[in-house]
Amino acid sequence: MVNKPYLVRVTDDMIINLESVATIGRNQEQGKLFICFIGSDEPLVLEGDDAQAMWIYFSSQMMSFHPLKITNPGRETLDKTQNSTDAD
To answer: Is pTM beyond 0.70 here?
Structure first.
């Protein structure tokens, strides 16, 4: 199985592709998380524990030294290796 960091499980029954996400927002008072997709007027709305868990996940990724990337790290490494070989 190929590591695809741009695929994220947001509920027990749903996995989303972060490449198609335009905005992630939160309404803390209502306990909701809104995930807006590129080209869509209707956001995915998560509530309760799902919303809280996803907000913590996305927030921690943005604060880490290696923030969430929407690329395959294996491919990124392969591209760097090929580029360094091509430069020789």
So the answer is: no
